[in-house]
Structure formats: structure tokens, C-alpha cells
Amino acid sequence: MLDDRKLAVLRAIVEDYVSTNEPVGSKALADRHNLGVSPATIRNDMAALEDGGYIHQPHTSAGRVPTDKGYRLFVDRLSQVKPLSGAERRAIETFLAGAIDLDEIVMRTVRLLAQLTRHVAVVQYPSLTRSTVRHVEIVPLADTRVMLVLITNTGRVEQRVVDLPDVIADDRVSHLRAVLNTALDGCGLAQVPETVAALPERLSPEDRPVAATILSVILETLVERHEEKIVFAGAANLAAADFTIGLRDVLEALEEQVVLMRLLGETDDLSELTVRIGSENPYTGLRGTSIVAAGYGSGDKELARLGVLGPTRMDYPVTMGAVRAVARYVGQILAGS
Amino acid sequence: MLDDRKLAVLRAIVEDYVSTNEPVGSKALADRHNLGVSPATIRNDMAALEDGGYIHQPHTSAGRVPTDKGYRLFVDRLSQVKPLSGAERRAIETFLAGAIDLDEIVMRTVRLLAQLTRHVAVVQYPSLTRSTVRHVEIVPLADTRVMLVLITNTGRVEQRVVDLPDVIADDRVSHLRAVLNTALDGCGLAQVPETVAALPERLSPEDRPVAATILSVILETLVERHEEKIVFAGAANLAAADFTIGLRDVLEALEEQVVLMRLLGETDDLSELTVRIGSENPYTGLRGTSIVAAGYGSGDKELARLGVLGPTRMDYPVTMGAVRAVARYVGQILAGS
DNA sequence: CCTGGCACTCTGTGTTCCCGAGTGCCAAGT
DNA sequence: ACTTGGCACTCGGGAACACAGAGTGCCAGG
User: Fold this and answer.
1) Which residue has the higher pLDDT, A288 or A161?
2) How remote is the C-alpha of A20 from its chain's centroid?
3) What's the pTM?
4) CA of B104, closest CA in chain A: separation in Å?
5) Which residue of A22, A274, B144, B174 is surrounded by the most CB atoms within 10 Å?
């Protein structure tokens, strides 16, 4: 049904429309691309493509515009990810290398991605549930108050102030700290609940009330914080892309952590590039935008996802290249720190 | 020069323009406000106000619009801050009360403020330099690696991983921790540098290289982090306000920490409400926007600032009331935690 | 000093008109 | 069977134009 030339025409339409932002007609196509056929032939192909639902004309006697389905075909079969230039790679490396802690890595990553793609960048913090405990620290603040600090292998630090039901002596704190650390060190966060459940038996009865409070806070922190943090940057790029409709809606969606999470997260294969185009999108306000996302992680474990959000008419090959590259570099940085 | 009635006319113009977003003419004024005079008289007053530069007509035969100077006069002499309703106060209290750590307090505050005012809210993290050290923790991670955790009285936690020049035994760590805590506990962050400088003398020579590294990191953390964090929320409200020009510029400014800092920060009297109107603003892209800001803190010490940014034609009395109220409540929450 | 009246000046809106880009279809050519 | 040039047709967008309405400034009278 769709022979090679028709696909070439579709590719040309997508490319031209992305770069000019104007409906593209048969004559312009024949001029700008070496298709070797006349405008009339192209018109026939375009009619076929329109029947298939890949392109669409805003009104009679206007050029054609790709539909979401058209972009989808383009992304899946007509384009290949465009690698970054050497200069861009080096820029990424040096820019990310200077970060000193997790907050800063994430912050720099999101800005970098926004600047590189000229879209809105979105980065999810490395998931707690997929990382492991590196250290638990209990710091006495007052007689019945301690601060609990959880450090994970990704450099993330969670802290909570805990009010205890009873006074606790310093040496009991030290003991508890030691027990917790031997039990939890290197433990995958997913295994923490069961590990914690088995702990009280190994403590003296007098410690149990206090320990129970602390343990429950540990669990709470891990579970509550499962709602992972997401940050974004580059909203100004939205204003630049002449958005037909709903800039307001898009901005609102961006401030809804939950929506963002679903955008990045819901995907089948975790490790590869995910592209969601226009109406494929679950959220109503985001018709007209596409998301390009990728997982990142240290080593082979995926820790979280990052990506960009832009108008449906974005340069997919370039954007996908940038997202993939940044995801890889962040993974390296995290693995190395 | 400006008698009472002229001021009343200016006030009426500002109020009407803010609520209708359309240039307001003499007839409308006479109808909607009980000024007790005819439109003709109002026209004379308006001519005087225009001579004074308080209002301006976009073109001949259009209504008048307040100038920045007009808003300034309105804010300074013609209006008073409008307190929140009881329901709103209670909403604030319950909304902020649920926060468990500093990050969440700030996060909730900025969202609350955005929702309350329907503008963009901006909140600066409580300043490190104005708070005091509550605890210093050193956590051994490996032979030549420790994690340094600084806890302040505002609940802020700063952590850094430190690579040491030498192996350090656990008991030396404990000792160092003890020395640091006795020296620094309750110490205002501004005094930390001198306190730290005096420390090495009190340590045994063998500890000094390691201690020096750790101390320098402490200083570095405090100094570097002096670039304080700022967050914002409610960008979607910008799109709603029909912005004449430069939505792009405004979004860009919002993502520049430095610009935001200056907007909130540069002010003479720290503790009161600050209003900066349109061109009074230092940043070019923010012509057309006003900032209402206030300091907040626990007790009498101001820790940082917060505020909102919106179109010049905002409802100043209401906005100022909301900002002031939120600032006070956040102060209370911080003091109580 | 206020007020009603009046002539004047604009902008925004609606209407009309026309150009041009782009199409679909058809008949002829390869 | 596919490609191509020709041709009539459609429709959106811009230019030209007119017009109503809102608002003003000014003046003379109360």
C-alpha cells in the first residue's frame, strides 16, 4: 500500500513542516527534495497518504501537515536517531562533571537538556526503591528527639526528625545505630521492610519501644517518599514555540508531579527511548505535545527516567539523540560517584 | 496640586482597570462610583492626573490606564492591605501544618501562595547565613571517605561526601565529631569561619591533616551554598493573565536564580512588605510585571524572603494581604519546628 | 468651580474584494 | 500501469474601506 516513494514523500513532508512550521504543498516538495518526480505525481501520493491518515490538510487548498499517526510512522521507520556532535558531547561531559551532589547533578542535567533541545526538560530523581542503603545515621538532638538520616548508594540523603516516646541514652543510640547498619548496609530498598520486620527480636526488651518508633519512621520515609521527586526546566522554550493552543494547560500539567510521573513512567520497555506523540498522550491538556523519554541508571540498573516535552512538530531525530546522550552521561556520572 | 477628589478618581481608575482590564473612561467612572460629580468634572481631574504622569491614554479617545507612577501612588497612599478572610487563614494553617521537613514546607508554601494569589509565587529557602548550627555529623563511609552532614536550627540539612587525604580510625572520627559539636553547637553560621579557624590548635597533630580537609569542606559548603536556593510555582497563572508582551521573557527571568534573588532581595527595610512596580524593576524583561515580597523568619530574625510576581495590573491590596499572611504563618511554622 | 452640550478624533469591527497557493481530476504521453 | 502537464476550482488571508461608538477637550452658562 505504501511504497517507498510514498514513504519518502512523508519523510519530506515531516522534515519540511518541522523546519518551516507551514503546511507543505506538492510544488515545494518537488523543489526542495530530489524526488525525481513531478508535483502531480506527488499529489497522487499525498492523496494516498491522506487516505491512510498520515497527513491532513487544514482546509481545502492548503498544504499538508503530518498527523500524529504520520509522525509515529516517521519516528518508527523513516528516521534514525541523530548522534550529537563531538563538541556537544564534550560540553555535556564538562557541564555535568562539576556537580558535587545529587541535587546538583539533577539540576544541571535538567538545565542542560533544556538548553540542548530547546524544549522543556523533565528529570525524575533516582528512585529510592531501586537503590540500596549505604548508611543509617541516628543523631541525638534532645532527650526524646533524634534525627534520622538515610544515605543511599546514589548519594541521596533522606532525613527526618523523630520524636521518641521515651528518653534514650546515648549508648543505646550507638547500639541501635550499629544494629541497623549491620542489618541494612547494602540492602536493596525493596528488601528493607522484611529486614526491618525481623529486627526487634535482636534487641533487648527495653530498647524496643524506641526502636519500634524509629523503624516505623524508616518505613514511612521509604514508602511516602516513593512519590518520587520530579523537576523541570526550560518552560521559556514553550513560549518560543508558537503554541497554537493551551500553553496554559501545558504549564499546568508541568506543575502536576503526578502527571509528569505518568508521562515519563508509563512505558513497556524501560531502558530504551520512548516517544509519545500528541494524542498518544494520556493527558488531555497535552494534546499537541510530544514526549521523548529515556531511562537512566548506573550500570545496568535503571534508576529513573528523564526526557523532554515539546510541540508535536519537533525534530525527533535530534531530540532523541540529545535525550539518549544525556541519559547515558548521567548514568556514568552516577555510577562514578 | 492633587486634592482629595483627584486622588479618589485615581483610586477609582486603578480599581476599575484592575477588575475589567479595559481603559476606563469618565462616564464609566461616574456611573460605577459615587463620586458625586459629573463626567465632565471627572474629565478635568483626569487631565490633571495625566499631566502629573499618574495615568495615560493609549490613544486619543480611549479611556485612561494607570501608569507605574499611578500604581505607586495608589499603593502608597490610596489603599490599605486587605486581610484574608477567616476561611483563608484556616486553609493556610492546615495546609502548612502537615509539612514534615524544610523541603516540604517550602514546597507547600510556594504552591499555596500561587493558588491564593493566582500569580507566580517565589520562595527563597531560609538563609544559611542567618541560622545557627544545631549539629554536625561525620559518617564514615569507607577508609578515606566520610559523609559530612550539617544540620541547622531551621531544619535544613546540608551533606557532602569528603575524600580524605589519609585513613582515619573510627575513634578519631568520634573525637573530631565531639570537638566540632562542642565548638559549633548553637553557633551562628556567620561566626563559623572564625570559630573554625581557631579549632586546629585544640586537636592533636596527627588529626590535623584530616581535620583540615573536613573543615575546609565545611567552610566551602557554607560559602558556596550562600547562593541560596529559590523555587517558584504557578507559572500557569501567567498564561491566564493576558500578557501583552514578553511572556517568554518573564519565564526566562523566572528560571534565572540570580534574577529572582535580586527581585526578592534588594530592598531597604527587610521585614516589611516590599512592592516593586513595573519599570521600578531592575530587570528589562520584567517591565509590565510587579513584585510583592515580604521577609519571613522565626521569631524576630528574618531568614529569607518570599513573594509573588504578577502583571502590573494586579489587585495590590489583596495580593499584599496574602503575601503578608503567608509570610507570617511560615515564620510561625519554622519557629515551632 | 461645576456642568451640560457639542464637535472632533480615534480604534476596533465588519464587509467586501481579490490574489495566490494548492488541490483534484483528466487526458495524453511513455 | 504509471507519470505528467494542463486546467478549473476552492478557500484562506490580506488590503481597502466604511462606520459606529466611546471618549475626549473645550466652551459658555449656572
Assistant:
1) A288
2) 28
3) 0.83
4) 11
5) A274
